[in-house]
Amino acid sequence: MAIYVMLTTLTDEGRKTVKANPKRIKEVNKEVEAMGVKILAQYALLGPYDFVNILEAPNNKTISKVAIELGARGTLQTMTMAAMTLDEMAV
Questions:
Q1: Can you give the pLDDT at residue 53?
Q2: What residues in the chain have per-residue pLDDT under 50?
Q3: How high is the pLDDT of residue 90?
Q4: Number of structural domains, the chain?
């Protein structure tokens, strides 16, 4: 399984949703896991991004599907990057 870092920024609509229903974040987590992606860690951030998620997915296609699905809702924008351990990077 591959590791990915997903940075997320809420849109105005997303901020309204989270304010009205903070539990929605956990509901979305369940939806992401149902798409075949495991959430290894998740943090709320201060700064230009609202959340950082460390995810495990079988491949780029699966993580792309998640990013497109979440972005299409209009409540957030994502930036997703593949990640690897230092041992995997060493040649």
A1: 98
A2: none
A3: 83
A4: 1
Contact 2, 60 (CB under 8 A): yes
Residue-range definition of the domain harbouring residue 22: 2-86
What is the per-residue pLDDT for 55?
A: 98
Q: What is the DSSP string of 21-75?
A: -TTHHHHHHHHHHHTT-EEEEEEE-SSS-SEEEEEEESSHHHHHHHHHHHHHTTS
Structural domain contains residue 91: no
Tokens, residue 47: 């700064």
Q: State how far the Cα of 49 lies from the Cα of 27, in Å rounded to an integer.
A: 20
In degrees, rounded to 5, the angle at the alpha carbon of residue 49 between the alpha carbons of residues 8 and 46 is 135
Nearest alpha-carbon partner for 4 in 44, 38, 48, 31: 38
Instruction: Give the pTM.
Output: 0.91
Residue 26, CA distances (Å) to 22, 65, 66 in order: 8, 19, 15
